Amino acid sequence: MFNRAVSRLSRKRPPSEINDSEGHPSSSHQTLKGTSKWATSLENLLEDPEGVKRFREFLKKEFSEENVLFWLACEEFKKTQGKKQMQEKAKEIYMTFLSSKASSQVNVEGQSRLSETILETPHPLMFQKLQDQIFNLMKYDSYSRFLKSDIFLNHKKSEEQEENSPEAQTAAKRASRIYNT
């Protein structure tokens, strides 16, 4: 019996195959949503439009919204097709975020700054080094403060209230609560 138990434990299964006693995926491996997912990484936050909205709201209060706007502009730029469109978008990003006269200048290291001449021959990853700098700035500075902010905590609280509302509960959950009390 002991050997059989060890044998079962030693079989490695991917998380997608781990089920509870009723054959449903284990709750510890269910997909996280909303604030729970945002709290796992800045990458997850930036993948969610609602997360970006809340993070921007927070950064605006910290007077650093230009960081996430630059990061988003770079992500869009990578998807740009055609040399003419790339030149236009590259110039727009440069003038908005990188130029000494930029309206929303981001704080990047001096030697990392691009010269205007590079805008003539754009390529999808031309802003990558600068984007990585801004990402790391947000990740190690703003993101941790965001997770402690009223904006994040209030949104998390409202999500939890919605999840616990009677409308959000399935008939099975209500029946289970009724019969198990």
Automatic annotation (TrEMBL):
One of its GO terms (molecular function) is GTPase activator activity. Signal peptide: none annotated. Residues 1-34, 157-181 are annotated as: Disordered. Residues 41-152 form the RGS domain. Residues 24-34 have a biased composition (Polar residues). Keywords: GTPase activation. Pfam families: RGS. It comes from the Eukaryota. This is Regulator of G-protein signaling 10. It comes from Grus japonensis (Japanese crane). The lineage of its organism: Eukaryota, Metazoa, Chordata, Craniata, Vertebrata.
